[in-house]
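Narrative of accomplishments. A recurring question from our advisory board has been how the design workflow behaves on a single, concrete structure rather than in aggregate. To address it, we present the structure tokens for one chain from the evaluation set, followed by the sequence designed for it. No filtering or post-editing was applied between the two.
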């Protein structure tokens, strides 16, 4: 019975991580395909100097 809260947390965490990754990739794809004029307004991580 003690494993149920841990399993619930793990499932919710996994669902949240997958949703976050999916949304991130969707936004990047939309920027590349549909909003080419906005692409230069957003600085991606690889564009930043160290």
């Amino acid at each position: 019975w003690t494993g149920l809260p841990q399993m619930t947390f793990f499932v919710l965490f996994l669902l949240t991580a997958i949703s976050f990754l999916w949304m991130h990739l969707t936004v990047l794809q939309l920027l590349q395909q549909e909003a080419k004029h906005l692409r230069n307004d957003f600085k991606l991580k690889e564009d930043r100097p160290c």
